[in-house]
Structure prediction request, 345 residues.
Amino acid sequence: MVKVTVCGAAGGIGQPLSLLLKLNPQVSELALFDIVNAKGVAADLSHINTPAIVTGYQPANKEDKTAIVESLKGTDLVIIPAGVPRKPGMTRADLFNINASIIRDLVANIARTAPNAAILIISNPVNSTVPIAAEVLKKLGVFNPKKLFGVTTLDSVRAETFLAGLINVSPTSLQGKISVIGGHSGDTIVPLINATPEIARKVATLSTDQYNKFINRVQYGGDEVVKAKNGVGSATLSMAYAGYRFAENVLNSLAGKETSGSIPDSSYVYLPGLPGGKELSTKYLNGVDFFSVPVVLEGGQIKSFVNPFELLKVTNDETKLVKVALDGLSKSIDQGVAFVTASKL
Prediction:
């Protein structure tokens, strides 16, 4: 019996994500929260012949806190795609002022109502919104670093898809064979594609130009979608799939299924709160505390992580990418922490 709450369930990511969750037999209750249309989405999904009971919650007015509290009561997993999407010319950093407040307030409600729930943050800019969530949870005295996840799975999904086209293999065959670390915007995204010998041999056939174009496409794939949608949307369907893929990992861990035999999906996490995390940060990351690494899950939380620098054959080119990523991450993290420091909860 697992209850999942989606905050921002009526949006472009929230609706397809909620549909995928409704199809998962491990979900017994699916609570959908949004400021508008959550009840309509819930009514629609409730007609699907799968066991999950779907309920919708939306506030009657700006002051109404009942809906969010009811949606969170007894939940095991909260997924947050809430916020505004990117528009043409807008970077993830431009989203900060709007989405930072949304994440702060949602996480404060989670802290007060469902402090033991696992929290998956999709809302951009993830490089800042996850530190915001961490600081809110710290302020309210319920921070469990093993249960706070920044969802960066879309970067892995893109890397698997784009690399497969270059080396002529099935995209699904690359899941667990390559990895993406760092952050979740532009040049903070670092694909690692030489981790396994069989893939490394195929990658060795790529020209420098092909490799550089691949890296750029993974890092800026979101811009490709925004442009293709003529400025009236961003990556919603692929993000919903990626968000569900990581949520399914968490659900599987709650059911006692362990990750084995492959490189697990990465998540943007607070390293000092994980065993060995502070050492990783100090030795390889110039003290940066938030970083996306492959995480092994157990019981709905992080059991351990894979140290990419010692186990995934990081190349010189990838080391250079990490160095660039750290600069951007440091600024984004500081921005998120400062936002909560200046906030009243």
User: Anything to note?
Assistant: The chain has a mean pLDDT of 95. The first strand starts at residue 3 and ends at 7. The first helix runs from residue 14 to 22.
